[in-house]
Specification:
about 90 residues, elongated
């Protein structure tokens, strides 16, 4: 092997070792943030769900404000309908 290839191999070995050390240091520095970032991620998922289904929630709140007695009557029926729609939607493939 000529001198230039030897230097390149040594340089590559040094860089690979340096990258491994940096990965370990990064993993140690990020560890305390793992739980708060997971909670923030769950919060974002909840916000996206609310954003996508805001019309349903808005309708429910409007109904609850205008006719509170009807809410208790229709809540179980609505829940069953919701479950049926989502199961059908998951099973339906065009």
């Amino acid at each position: 092997m000529n001198d230039k290839l030897m230097r390149l191999a040594e340089r590559r070995e040094h860089l690979v070792t340096q990258a491994a050390v940096q990965r370990m240091a990064l993993a140690q520095n990020i560890e305390p943030w793992r739980t708060p970032l997971a909670l923030a991620d769950q919060g974002l998922v909840a916000l996206r769900f609310i954003k996508r289904h805001a019309w349903i929630a808005g309708g429910g709140f409007l109904l609850a404000a205008l006719r509170p007695g009807l809410v208790w009557k229709w809540l179980p029926r609505s829940w069953v309908a919701w479950q049926i729609v989502y199961k059908l939607r998951d099973n339906w493939k065009p």
